[in-house]
Amino acid sequence: MRRYALTGLIKLPFGRLILQYGGDLKTGNGLFEDLRFAVRVLTIF
Prior knowledge:
Elements: E1 2-12, E2 15-26, E3 36-43
Antiparallel strand pairs: 1-2, 2-3
């Protein structure tokens, strides 16, 4: 399986915002992802 991804990180006053974009280039077995976009929020308490 070959995959590509681009990740960005933004520091905010309450934590971090993580943006991810990517997908699969080649998959032998299993599910194939054409496109992936994810937004994650990391807070520290």
